[in-house]
Amino acid sequence: MLQPARPAANNRLLASLPGKDRQHLLARCEQVELRFADVLCKPGERIRHVFFPTDSFISLIAPIKGHRGLEVGLVGDEGMLGISLMLGVSAAPLCALVQGAGPAWRMEAAAFCRELKRSPALQRGLNRYLHVTLSQLALTAACTRFHLVEARLARWLLMTRDRAHADEFRITHEFLAYMLGVRRAGVTRAASALRRRKLIRYSRGKLMILNGRGLEAAACG
Predict the structure, then answer these.
(1) 155: exposed, middle or buried (Cβ count in 10 Å: 0-12, 13-18, 19+)
(2) How far apart are CA 213 and CA 118, in angstroms?
């Protein structure tokens, strides 16, 4: 159910804006509940809305011909979905899949573009966010090519924890295999290795991070 935008944002990108700019933008947003596994956009589709997650997060998945695709990024309360609009590109480059259900601010693409022209502060904030996003995409590509599944899984769990704001979440081996672009057996071996080192606990789809620092040491750089 849609709800009118009211008070302060719980999105850090929006929270970094000056008060007047933030309130002007939020007045043009609506709060929505993102549901797990919902597809918000597909590659090549016209971007109709941008999303600023608050207590939700979104996987960015690159299409690969002959395969299910590969997760190349995550969007949580630190950022937004639809950043390509600030480059004048209205077609979605990646598939956006809700990984963590919860609320988000939603805004029509046309209204967002008008806000970009109106607010230099928003432009500066998004320029920084775009730089970080591009850096993360490059690091993910390098990680996928050179690092073992165990290290990639540790990194993925830490990134997910940062956006879920919790050490415990539900996830299946099948979904992890999809996110990492590997066979389910590879995820099972990697998760078992992390479990033997007492870094995680995993049972019946429920995963808990037991040792965050240890997991950081196990993750790729």
Answers:
(1) buried
(2) 43
Q: What is the pLDDT of residues 144-162, one digit of tens each?
A: 778 888 998 998 899 889 8
Calculate the alpha carbon distances from 43 to 145, 181, 185 in Å: 23, 18, 29
Per the document, the length of the chain is: 221
Q: Which strands, in side-by-side order, build the sheet including 57-62?
A: 39-41, 95-100, 57-62, 70-75
Q: Look up residue 144 and give its amino acid.
A: T
pTM summary value: 0.83
Pairing status of strand 39-41 against strand 49-53: unpaired
Q: Distance (Å, rounded) from C-alpha 158 to C-alpha 74?
A: 11
3 state SS of 54: coil
Within the chain, residue ranges assigned H as helices are: 12-15, 19-26, 109-118, 120-146, 149-164, 173-180, 184-196, 212-218
Beta-carbon neighbour count of residue 121 at 10 Å?
A: 14
CB neighbourhood size of 64 (10 A) = 10
